Amino acid sequence: MSMQRLCPPAPSLPVHEDPFLLLDDPFLLADTATTRHVETQALAAVQPGETSLMQRAGHALYRLIMARYPHAQNIWVLAGAGNNGGDAIVAAAWLHKAGKQVHVTWLGSPAQMSSDTTKAVAAAQQAGLALHPLDSEVTLPAIELMIDGLLGIGLTPDRPVSTKIAQIIAAINQLPAPVVAVDLPSGLIADTGAIASCCVRADTTLTFLCAKPGLFTAEGRAYSGEIWLDTLDMALSAPFPPVARLWTGVLPHPPRAHNTHKGSFGDVAVVGGADSMTGAAILAARAAIGAGAGRVYVSLLTQSPAAIALDTLHPELMFRTIQQLDISKLTIACGCGAGQEVAHVLPELLRKCPRLLLDADALNAIAADAALQQLLKARAPMQMTTVITPHPLEAARLLNITVDQVQTSRLKTAKTLAQHFGCICVLKGSGTIIATPRQISLINISGNGALATAGTGDVLAGWLTGRWSAFPDEALQHNMACGVWQHGDAADRWQQAGHTGPLPASQLIDWLLCA
Ligand SMILES: NC(=O)C1=CN([C@@H]2O[C@H](COP(=O)(O)OP(=O)(O)OC[C@H]3O[C@@H](n4cnc5c(N)ncnc54)[C@H](OP(=O)(O)O)[C@@H]3O)[C@@H](O)[C@H]2O)[C@@H](O)CC1
Ligand SMILES: Nc1ncnc2c1ncn2[C@@H]1O[C@H](COP(=O)(O)OP(=O)(O)O)[C@@H](O)[C@H]1O
Ligand SMILES: [K+]
C-alpha cells in the first residue's frame, strides 16, 4: 500500500534512529534537490511497458478523490503548463471515465510539454475529455470539487507567482468547493513552507514520492489541509539524506515505580516573573510539576514587596530567591516574564547551571549582549546542556536578521542557532522545529492556532523543563520533541472537544495533564 495519510498522523509513533533510508520511512522529509534526485532514479527504474510516474501519480490522485470526495460530480481541474498539470490531467481522464462532469482548464501548450505530459494530454483527448484554455468559461453548473495542478515543485521560489496564475489562485480561494492539491498547494515553496506571493488554500494535499518539509512548517499547515503521501510504488536502492523528520507522538515511559521518591525526578527552578509578569513564571512552574519534576522552585525577579510568595492553587510550588538555591544541582527554566532584570542573573546561571532552558526575555537579553553570547557558547564544551525556545522574533534577534528571514527558512534558522550556540533549538510557531547541532531536525506535527495566545510559550518552557528533570536519561532532542508534541496535542484535543477560540494558558496545563 503506497498511499498513506501523514497529517493528521496515525496514532503510532515509529522512531527511526537511522535517517538515511529515505522512502522506507514516510515521516522523513526531502528537499526539492533530493526529490529531483529521487525522481531521476525513479524514472530510470521504470521499465519499458510499465506505467510512468505521472500515470501513477494521476491514478493515485483519482483514487484519493474517489475515496475522500465520492459524491463530487462536478469537478474543475486546474492544470498548469508543467508536470504538475500533467498529473492533474491524468486524474481528470480517470474521473471523466468514471462518469464525473469534469472541466479542465489547461495552461500548457503542445509546443512546451514534457513527453509524459504529451502522453497524458493525448490520452485524455482520446477518452473524449476536452482541455480548455484559460479564457473559456467554466460550464459546470455548480463546482463541487477543484483540483489544483497549477504549480508543484517546479515553482521558482524567488519569483512571485505570475499575474495569470495569481488570478486563478484568487478565484479558487474564493469558491466554496473543497480543493485537492496535487503534490503541493500551488504557491507553497516545498523546501521552506513560505509562500511565493499567493497560494491555493487546499483541503487535501496528495504529495508524491517524498514528503516535503514545506507542507509541515511555516505556512504549510495552513494551506495544505490533510496531507497524504503516495510513494508511487517505487522501491529505490540508493539512500538519500533527508532534510528533516516529522515528529508525530510521544515515546512511552514506564509508570513511576513504587520505590521512587520526589528526589528521583529532580528539582526544577523557574527563574522569571519580573514586575507585572509574575504569572508567566507561575505558569511555567505549574507546567513543570505537571510534566513530572520532583520539586519545583520559583525564583521571582520582581522587586515588588507585594509579590506573591504562595501559589494558592498550587501550594506545592516553593518560592525561593536564586541565592537560596543550589544552581549547580537544578534543571532551570529561565526567561518566563523575566523582563530586563534577567540580565543580572544570567551570567551565574550560564556559568553554573548544568541543564538550562532559555526562553523569552532571557533570549532577548542574550541577543543584546555579546558577553552573554560568549557565556552561552562556552557551555557545551564544559558539558553543560542548553535548550533555547525562541519564537520567530526572538530567533530573529539572536541572529540579527528579520522575522521574515526566519519564517522563510525555519529549518535553516533552527539549525544555525543550534550550531552557533551549541544547544538544542526549539523554534516555535506552526510546525515547531527541534534542531540540534548535528542530528536530523524534527518538525512537530501537532498544535494549532488555539495556542496563539499569551502564556502558552511559558507553559511550554515549564513543561519541557519538567520533562528534562523527570527523564534526564532520555535522548534530549527526543525528550524535547515529545514535550512539544504533547503541548500541541493538548490544543488539538481542545479543538476536537468543540472549542473554537484560544486555549488560555492556564487551561492548557489542565489539558496537558489529562492526556
Ligand atoms: N518529482 C516527483 O516526485 C514527481 C513529480 N511529478 C509531478 O511533477 C511536478 C513537477 O513538475 P515540473 O518540474 O514540470 O514543475 P511544475 O511544478 O509543474 O511547475 C513548472 C511550471 O510552473 C511554472 N512556474 C514556475 N514558477 C512560476 C511562478 N513563480 N509563477 C508562475 N509560473 C511558474 C513554469 O513556468 P516557466 O518557469 O516555464 O515560465 C512551468 O510551467 C511535481 O510537483 C509533481 O506534481 C509526478 O508526475 C511524478 C513524481
Ligand atoms: N498557530 C499555531 N500553531 C501551532 N502552534 C502555535 C501556533 N501559535 C502559537 N503556537 C505555539 O504556542 C506557543 C506560543 O509561545 P510564545 O509565542 O512564546 O508565547 P508567550 O510568550 O505568550 O508564552 C509556542 O509553543 C508556539 O509554537
Ligand atoms: K499544485
Automatic annotation (TrEMBL):
| Binding-site residues, (6S)-NADPHX | 83-87, 183, 280, 337, 391, 458
Q: Where is the YjeF N-terminal domain?
A: 35-240
Binding residues annotated for AMP, in chain numbering: 428-432, 457
GO terms (molecular function) for this protein are: ADP-dependent NAD(P)H-hydrate dehydratase activity; ATP binding; metal ion binding; NAD(P)HX epimerase activity
Cited Pfam families: Carb_kinase, YjeF_N
Query: Does Isomerase show up as a keyword for this record?
Result: yes
Instruction: Report keywords, A-Z.
Output: ATP-binding, Isomerase, Lyase, Metal-binding, Multifunctional enzyme, NAD, NADP, Nucleotide-binding, Potassium
Task: Kindly state what the record says about how the cofactor is bound.
Answer: Binds 1 potassium ion per subunit.
Query: What EC number is given for this enzyme?
Result: 4.2.1.136, 5.1.99.6
Q: Which domain of life is it from?
A: Bacteria
The prosthetic group or cofactor this protein requires is: K(+); Mg(2+)
Q: Provide the reaction this enzyme catalyses.
A: (6S)-NADHX + ADP = AMP + phosphate + NADH + H(+); (6S)-NADPHX + ADP = AMP + phosphate + NADPH + H(+); (6R)-NADHX = (6S)-NADHX; (6R)-NADPHX = (6S)-NADPHX
Specify the YjeF C-terminal domain's residue ranges.
245-515
Example GO BP: metabolite repair
**Which positions are annotated as binding K(+)?**
84, 148, 186
Show the HAMAP family listed in the entry. Answer: NADHX_dehydratase, NADHX_epimerase
NCBIfam families xref list: yjeF_cterm, yjeF_nterm
| Subunit and partners | Homotetramer.
Functional summary from the UniProt entry = Catalyzes the dehydration of the S-form of NAD(P)HX at the expense of ADP, which is converted to AMP. Together with NAD(P)HX epimerase, which catalyzes the epimerization of the S- and R-forms, the enzyme allows the repair of both epimers of NAD(P)HX, a damaged form of NAD(P)H that is a result of enzymatic or heat-dependent hydration.
Family membership: In the N-terminal section; belongs to the NnrE/AIBP family. Belongs to the NnrD/CARKD family.
What protein name is recorded for this chain? Bifunctional NAD(P)H-hydrate repair enzyme
